[in-house]
């Protein structure tokens, strides 16, 4: 087996495997090392995203949404469902099948692009005159050398102090995706993306869900108007969301978990649940890489320091994705992976964090790109705002989902689109038009003048653009 390469990529998550493939397309000899294993001990490339994150969570969100529609939404369409029954093992089996298909797809892409995949855990061994030595331990133990290395090892869930994940009672995203039965009472600490998505899945399937959030504002990163609407809709669905709480302690018993906390008014409370999901952020996976062997160290928070181009202080070593600054998003890691592969070959790509879209796959879906209204106000930038409700959109009425709106923000003088914020049906797909427009520095008028097919949800984007100048046609 080949042991010398132009490039070694450590990690086969979204950033790593994409970087490896792009580098191979550009003519480099590439090895990609990854330690994820499936239930049978075989390789499972794709990282957290594919194995216990983006992909399985979307599979369960889709399945649970079908279940909820069958129980509560089909009747409106003249479809009566008798004897509705949840087969959770089958639902989980489908989720695992979707994961396997993605794992196998990545292995196929490696083979197609002549990327050498190595199954095991990587660590730096030494810095050489012409590159680096990397040891691999595990199913495939060996030493590899390369002129360049990309660190793409991703992140892990952050645990509460004195409340480690056991994935039985106290759950990270991993355990939240694999519950063998629907808990009667489910607690969620953290009202971020993972907490809201997992809380939504298990609420739809029958759990009584309580979400505890330390921050006083709901979805503080989102536009305030969107966050307000989202909170209203989630509470209407039955999620008990409590803001401004302070966790005092978590104690797991034989069958239940007790959470002591102070509510927003400072009153002491105790929440007893059958399962507790903790989603309070993630930490970079840098432990065990033996960075010191090549003269590299992390910052105080455990991140690998990089410049704008993802170069580390050690020439020839790069880092991307969750182990570096910037949002912990799979698609951000992918873009950095492509950019680094191209930079290694002398090209000059760029990644604009301001046009990286954000999505929460709840119902209603939430998506945004660019700046929020509160950010523009804080910066003192003059802007125009236009919004259009899905209630006035013909396709949304036909779907039977008229929740939410599209909101567009543009510069008061130039009309350049500064941000787009969506809550409603298929927001995750609609946001792409806004991202494309912003990459081309489009004005709201540009979107307003583009012919959108009728009837489509995308017409709400056109109408929001028109509304920036107070000339919406359908509202």
TrEMBL record:
Claim: Cytoplasm is one of the keywords in the record: yes
SS bonds (residue pairs): 49-54
GO annotation (BP), single: 2-oxoglutarate metabolic process
GO cellular component, one term: cytoplasm
Domain Pyridine nucleotide-disulphide oxidoreductase dimerisation: 356-465
Keyword NAD: yes
NCBIfam families on file: lipoamide_DH
Pfam families, sorted: Pyr_redox_2 (PF07992), Pyr_redox_dim (PF02852)
Domain FAD/NAD(P)-binding, first and last residues per copy: 5-337
Entries under InterPro entries matching the protein: Class-I_Pyr_Nuc-Dis_Oxidored, FAD/NAD-bd_sf, FAD/NAD-binding_dom, FAD/NAD-linked_Rdtase_dimer_sf, Lipoamide_DH, Pyr_nuc-diS_OxRdtase, Pyr_nucl-diS_OxRdtase_dimer
Species name: Thiomonas delicata (Thiomonas cuprina)
Protein name: Dihydrolipoyl dehydrogenase
Catalytic activity: N(6)-[(R)-dihydrolipoyl]-L-lysyl-[protein] + NAD(+) = N(6)-[(R)-lipoyl]-L-lysyl-[protein] + NADH + H(+)
Residues at the catalytic site: 454 (proton acceptor)
EC number(s) on file: 1.8.1.4
